[in-house]
Design a protein that fits this description.
By secondary structure, the chain is an alpha+beta fold. It is built from 5 helices and 11 strands, in the order ααββββββαββααβββ.
Length: 204
């Protein structure tokens, strides 16, 4: 495992806290989680961590309960428009720091618990239609979409500052981390951001 469960939880909670302080719902912030998370992994783990965008599907359990980020077309499922997802590719690993927010997206009587998503590339099913059990997943990169979305993201210089704040806030367990941090808008206004987010007790 590249990132231990406790450290994964810390990374998720730090990014979720910063995102919420900016008025963004963490359950709809996959770009933030992938960009900030990849920056943090590169800094603290000294590995090449790359944000990816495209089609993503996760078998979360129950009776064929699948969470899919994409559009159903005549040619199958694909990532188009606003229906896409972002994740991180780090060597042999695929990581999604937004995964603990999945329960908020799954509007059904079937309840799922917040879990860590960190899988080897070789764990992925060969086709989106081949998912059969809890933990199965499928990613399909869309390079053009990644260039478009990430370039739009970096048009706001403040996001670079926020990525640095997330990275500075994080420390690997068992070192303690501060329960809050102070952010600035660069115009003399400061925000006290408290560490928040759900607990992550298990993994997909």
């Amino acid at each position: 495992m590249l990132v231990k469960l406790k450290d994964y939880e810390r990374i998720y909670q730090i990014i979720a806290s910063i995102v919420k302080s900016e008025g963004v719902d963490p359950a709809h912030a996959c770009t933030f989680f992938s960009v900030f998370g990849s920056h943090l992994l590169t800094s603290h783990y000294k590995i090449e961590a790359i944000p990816r965008c495209g089609l993503a599907a996760f078998y979360v359990g129950g009776q064929h309960e699948v969470l899919c980020f994409g559009n159903l077309t005549e040619r199958g499922v694909s990532a188009q428009g606003e229906n896409f997802h972002c994740w991180i590719e780090a060597g042999d690993w695929l990581i999604d720091f937004m995964a603990p927010e999945f329960p908020k997206l799954f509007k059904t009587e079937f309840n799922i618990t917040p879990k860590m998503f960190q899988k080897r590339k070789t764990d992925m099913v060969s086709d989106v239609n081949n998912m059969a059990k809890e933990g199965d997943f499928f990613f399909a990169q869309h390079p053009e979409l990644a260039v478009q979305r990430l370039s739009q993201f970096w048009e706001k210089p403040v996001y670079g500052d926020l990525a640095e704040i997330c990275t500075a806030w994080f420390k690997k367990y068992p070192k303690s981390i501060s329960p809050n941090c102070i952010t600035s808008n660069g115009k003399g206004s400061y925000t006290d951001v408290k560490l928040s987010g759900v607990s992550v007790k298990s993994r997909w």
